[in-house]
Specification:
Length: 334
């Protein structure tokens, strides 16, 4: 399934809902579709049951477990068969995409860990520093902990931090954890993955450089924004994102192309590593890191305010963001 989060306008303001994409450009409200299916089958208190079976937001949905995914499939099938069906109280079950505002499929990750999994990107970064890639890079998959509270969905304008002059992107694949676990083997970790999406790891490169020279961070060099979307493709349809073509376009011009097979570390192994002596939760987010030339730093080519950045991954569609304009000179001295 292609799971989404979306916002719909109502007379009392916007509401965030959990949905799935259906053929014909439809966005199905899975919670209301579940309630409608139950009501059509003569089940009492259908909406209350639907709230338990298919909660209306992504985190609660992931918390519910595999049964929620099964119920969501039934709800999607029900809504797709009868596009005129309504919820128990007349709720709309499906919208065309222009009728809603698409959000990040996971608007509020519980945690964000971003890895450095592409070997050639790691090697070339070391070469720019005029040093070999540290042999420790091959000992374990390394990552930083990012800011899970600054998430930008498809089509959003990403603010240009006032303290940077080197705004950058990184084309990555995001992995969403679907089940709680601890001390997982890679084989176990594979079964704890809910699905995959596109991730844009935005960076303030000049600030990041200063932080890393001090052997700390990245912090302010990364924490201002992470892009995610447009949908979460469930792991039953994509068990592992191997051999997928990845491209970056800026203002409609292709800047680079890579492939997800360039990763040295797999997602099950990365998740297994994270889970050692630590509990992972549904809604935790892992980033793959970028392929070589999947960012402006590798290309020595830099985006500007107002630019449109489009990341595409085979099977995961396209994720587009617009670069915002600086609001003014920061008082911080960098």
């Amino acid at each position: 399934m292609k799971l989404v989060s979306f916002e719909v306008e109502t007379v009392v303001g916007p509401f965030e809902r959990l949905g799935a994409l259906a053929p014909g450009g439809l966005v199905v409200d899975l919670n209301f579709a579940c309630a409608a299916r139950l009501a059509a089958a003569g089940k009492p208190v259908a909406q209350r049951r639907a709230n338990d079976l298919v909660p209306p937001d992504m985190l609660a949905f992931l918390d519910t477990g595999e049964d929620a995914l099964d119920e969501a499939r039934r709800a999607l099938e029900f809504a797709a068969k009868d596009r005129k069906a309504r919820g128990p109280r007349g709720e709309c079950l499906a919208y065309s995409e222009p009728e809603v505002r698409m959000l990040s499929p996971l608007p509020r990750p519980r945690a964000l860990r971003d890895f450095f999994a592409f070997e050639e990107h790691a090697k070339q970064g070391a070469a720019r520093r005029k040093e070999p890639l540290a042999p420790e890079w091959y000992d374990q998959p390394v990552y930083y902990k990012g800011n899970h509270r600054e998430i930008y969905g498809p089509g959003a304008t990403v603010p240009w931090p006032s303290y940077t002059r080197r705004f950058d992107f990184e084309h990555e694949i995001g992995c969403v954890v679907g089940k709680k676990g601890r001390d997982l083997t890679p084989d176990q970790a594979l079964k704890h993955i809910a699905g995959y999406t596109i991730l844009n790891d935005f960076s303030a490169r000049d600030i990041q450089k200063n932080e890393m020279v001090c052997r700390m961070g990245p912090a302010k060099g990364k924490d201002f924004a992470t892009g995610l979307g447009p949908y979460l493709l469930t792991a039953d349809e994509l068990p592992e994102p191997e051999g997928l073509r990845m491209t970056v376009s800026v203002n409609g011009e292709k800047w680079s192309e890579g492939n997800s097979s360039g990763r040295y570390w797999s997602f099950p192994l990365m998740l297994s590593h994270v889970s050692q002596e630590e509990t992972v939760q549904p809604g935790d987010l892992l980033g793959s890191g970028t392929y070589f030339k999947g960012c402006g730093l590798d290309l020595d080519r830099w985006v500007k305010p107002g630019d449109s950045i489009e990341l595409e991954v085979e099977k995961l569609c396209k994720l587009r963001h617009v670069v915002g304009h600086p609001k003014g000179q920061s008082q911080l001295k960098y």
